[in-house]
Design a protein that fits this description.
heterodimer; A: 699 residues; Sodium/glucose cotransporter; Barwin-like endoglucanases; 3 domains; 6-stranded mixed beta sheet; two-stranded antiparallel sheet; 5% strand; B: 70 residues; 0% strand
């Protein structure tokens, strides 16, 4: 396979450095909008849908990367777009299930949902799995960044007389340092705004490359005719080759990946939570999936298609055996002029950095919410701190955890480095790490009967079944392979998602449907004087079994029998130890009680009458009262009542909600067109004097 | 010549299995009243959801036809 080095000119490097500095300055300007951990992580739930929709582009495009889709575009053609246009099947579940639940239940992280819906132990296990997922995702991002940067660099350089080889890991560590510095001082608002800018730049750069490439090969007609028919099909071949086939990718990406991306990717979920309302979040998600993803599919994959076309007519310029992961850089360099190439590369690497820093920010949020705070609560401090001091300490902890997560992300690259392309590494990662959480979140939202015992057993016995599947792929995953040939080096990278989802669902369903039997066994155990001792013995047995499965030291059948034993023990232990009230634990936390969730969010009865949005000038008021006061007439127009939630926002639409606050309507006055706010609200909204605001009743 | 197995079967599988999942989602959110079709704004969202499914089906269908016959 042919690899490239030293691509690009000094002009390109100057353009890249200037671009990076400009982006970092732009981001740090918005860092001043972080006044608390809420702002640092969530951007203060204030933004308009369009701003979030465009800021997601850089996250989505970055994470799905120019590198890996160009690689598949070069190897297989237009079917590289497949993964960008197969997300719609789960949109109903997301828009009307998960999104309102995460917003209205005021959860700050996905594991927190598991505590509210199930139990603290379910949250603990979800935290472990989610941290694995997020850190793995960061690792994939770093790997892609390293592979994108490597062709630009020389093979070696000389420092103080000694020759140093530039390695992939060396490049990744260097990039990680820059990324870590940026995210540590930026926060979510900075990320949203840099991503917004980069979203536009990326689309422009990707489309520019497409037009330059088509022009280079002699126009669209020539380009179309040069590609073989199978390169033009939008979906891959059904079940071959094992490195890229439709059915495997459908289960890995269309199912596990789509749910993982929409439901589990805290980076994305936090973006939707940064919109001013659930409806704005829906608009952002819909616009993104309907329009931005198909455009992004062209933007990220076209270098591969152009590369293929050039390799057909001029194999001396693009050899057919070019390393697929380098094709993007190679084609960009061929079809563009010096400077333009630098701009395209800067856009690509900056977007990848956006993805990585979004994920680091999100993982830090999980750490603060699901590790730091529970530990602090457990070891109660003798003199409780005030809110401001607590928040200051959390912000410091968030910044340090960002650094630690960056290091772990770099280390996780070692796991994925052995795959031939980033695409396969990402596919393997999705198939392996998403199914247990995906199944747990999904059933948690839509199935009221789903119990803590079932979710915990899914996390433990489900994972054990996944591990045995990974150890015996031919015997276990092979049953689901749809005729895909097994690659002994990386067996069933994609279709393993189907096996993993199947075993996790099977465990969840079986345990839920046997709840009565578990309760009856637990009742008998509780009536025994040594019941608790039996339970602790069973926990010890479970730990031993799980370790035996992980170490893979027993024959397959014996391991399977032990996992079945695990399937019996864990539900009983969980039912024994966890107090669970189905009624209390499902209200407002499943799709069946969204209205109730909304009411709980507001804290009083809903007022869903549709009113007008009024324009008002703001004035400061004295005192600590944290409501805002509008005139009686304005409230009538808004069809608002005292106690309703209101959203005040700078009237300039292009600000996208950056200067805005949420509050509660207090006692009215008689000055029409005026809203009274307190000092805290003024500071949070970063309002400008004499600028008009809009006042919108939320609920 | 591209076989049916590699041209139209992926399309049928995608919108067959995907369609079952999509329909299940629509039924679940409607039955749970999370999507409350008595509300004007939810009626709009219902149409958007259906439109999205057809829109993607058309993109894939038309591209398959273009690849095979154009």
């Amino acid at each position: 396979m042919q690899t490239f080095h030293n691509i690009g000119t000094s002009t390109d490097w100057i353009v890249m450095i200037v671009y990076f500095l400009a982006i970092m300055l732009f981001g740090s300007y918005f860092g001043r909008y972080n006044r608390s951990t809420k702002d640092f992580f969530f951007g203060g739930r204030r933004f308009a849908w369009w701003l979030i929709a465009f800021s997601i582009v850089a996250t989505g495009v970055g994470s799905h990367s120019f590198v890996k889709y160009s690689a598949k575009g070069f190897e297989h053609g237009f079917s590289s777009t497949m993964t960008y246009i197969n997300d719609w099947f789960f949109i109903p579940f997301f828009l009307f299930g998960w999104l309102p639940i995460i917003v209205y239940s005021k959860i700050r992280s996905i594991p927190e949902y598991f505590e509210k819906r199930f139990s603290p132990s379910a949250r603990f296990l979800a935290t472990i799995l989610l941290m694995f997922y997020m850190i793995g995702y960061i690792g994939i991002g770093f790997l892609t960044l390293g592979k994108a940067a490597l062709p630009l660099l020389p093979e070696t350089f000389t420092l103080f007389g000694s020759t140093i080889h530039i390695t992939l890991m060396g490049v990744i560590i260097f990039i990680a340092v820059i990324t870590g510095i940026y995210i540590t001082f930026g926060g979510q608002t900075a990320v949203i705004f840099t991503d917004l800018l980069q979203g536009f730049v990326l689309l422009f750069a990707g489309l520019l490359l497409f037009f330059l490439g088509v022009d280079y090969v002699g126009g669209f007609g020539v380009f179309w005719d040069l590609l073989p028919t199978e390169w033009k099909l939008p979906l891959a071949k059904f079940n071959e080759p094992s490195s890229f086939n439709f059915v495997g990718i459908f289960w890995q990406d269309g199912i596990a990946g789509s749910i993982g991306f929409l439901f589990m990717n805290m980076g994305l979920v936090m973006r939707f939570m940064a919109t001013k309302s659930v409806n704005e979040g829906r608009k952002a998600a819909t616009f993104n999936v309907l329009f931005m993803l198909p455009i992004s599919a062209i933007v990220v994959g076209n270098a591969g298609w152009i590369g293929k076309a050039i390799s057909v007519v001029s194999p001396e310029i693009v050899p057919p055996n070019t390393s697929p992961d380098q094709i993007f850089v190679v084609v960009a360099n061929i079809v563009s002029h010096p400077g333009v190439f630098g701009f395209i590369m800067a856009a690509l690497t900056a977007a990848l950095m956006s993805t990585v820093d979004t994920l680091i920010n999100a993982t830090a949020a999980i750490y603060i919410n699901d590790v730091y705070r529970p530990i602090k609560t457990f070891f109660k401090e003798k003199t409780p701190l005030n809110i401001k001091e607590t928040d200051r300490r959390e912000l410091v902890a968030a910044r340090w955890s960002s650094v630690a997560i960056t290091i772990l992300g770099v280390l996780s690259v070692l796991v994925f480095e052995s795959f031939p392309t980033v695409y396969e590494a990402h596919g393997y990662f999705h198939s392996t790490l998403t199914p247990p959480l995906v199944v747990a979140i999904f059933l948690g939202i839509f199935w009221r009967r789903f119990t803590p015992a079932a979710v915990i057993t899914t996390f433990i016995a489900g994972v054990a079944l996944m591990i045995i599947g990974a150890n015996y792929p031919a015997q276990l995953i092979g049953i689901f392979d749809h005729g895909i040939e097994m690659d002994p080096k990386h067996p069933y990278s994609y279709i393993r998602a189907l096996y993993n989802i199947f075993v996790c669902i099977a465990v969840a369903v079986v345990v839920t449907y046997t709840t009565l039997q578990q309760k009856s066994i637990v009742a008998k155990l509780k009536s025994k004087p040594d019941g608790t001792r039996i339970i602790y013995s069973l926990i010890a047995v479970s730990v031993v079994i799980f370790l035996l499965v992980v170490l893979n030291i027993l024959p397959m059948m014996l391991t399977l029998i032990l996992i079945l034993l695990l399937l019996l023990i864990i539900p009983i232990v969980s039912t024994y130890l966890i107090k669970y009230d189905e009624e209390a634990k499902t209200i407002g936390l499943t799709a069946w009680s969204i209205a109730k969730a909304k009411e709980m969010f507001k804290g009083s009865k809903l007022n869903e009458e549709e009113g007008e949005i009024v324009k008002v000038h703001w004035r400061m008021k004295e005192g600590e009262d944290d409501t805002v006061n509008l005139s009686e007439n304005d409230m009538k127009k808004m069809k608002a009542e005292i106690g309703d939630l209101v959203y005040l926002c700078d009237a300039r639409k292009y600000m996208g909600g950056l200067k805005s606050i949420h509050s509660v309507i207090g006692e009215p006055h008689n000055e029409d067109g005026i809203v009274y706010i307190n000092d805290e609200q003024f500071q949070n909204g970063v309002f400008v004097e004499n600028r008009l605001l809009t006042a919108e009743k939320e609920m | 010549m591209i076989s049916f197995f590699d041209s139209w079967l992926p399309f049928i599988y995608l919108y067959g299995v995907g369609g079952v999942l999509f329909t299940t989602g629509m039924v679940l959110i409607s039955k749970s009243k999370s999507l409350d079709l008595r509300k004007k704004i939810h009626k709009f969202w219902f149409k958007v959801l259906i439109f999205g499914f057809i829109y993607f089906m058309l993109i894939h269908g038309l591209f398959t036809i273009a690849a095979l016959y154009w």
